[in-house]
Amino acid sequence: MALTKADLTQARTQMVEWQLRRREISDRRVLEAFLEVPRHEFVLPEHVAEAYEDHPLPIGEGQTISQPYMVAVMTEALRLQEEEKVLEVGTGSGYQTAILAWLARHVYTIEKYASLNARAQENLRRLEIRNVTCLVGDGSQGYQEAAPYEGILVTAAAPRVPQMLSDQLAEGGRLVIPVGEIYSQELLLVEKHEGRLSQKTINYCRFVPLTGKYGWGGNQVN
Ligand code: SAM
Question: Which residue, by CA, sits nearest to atom 27 of ligand 1?
Answer without folding.
Answer: 90
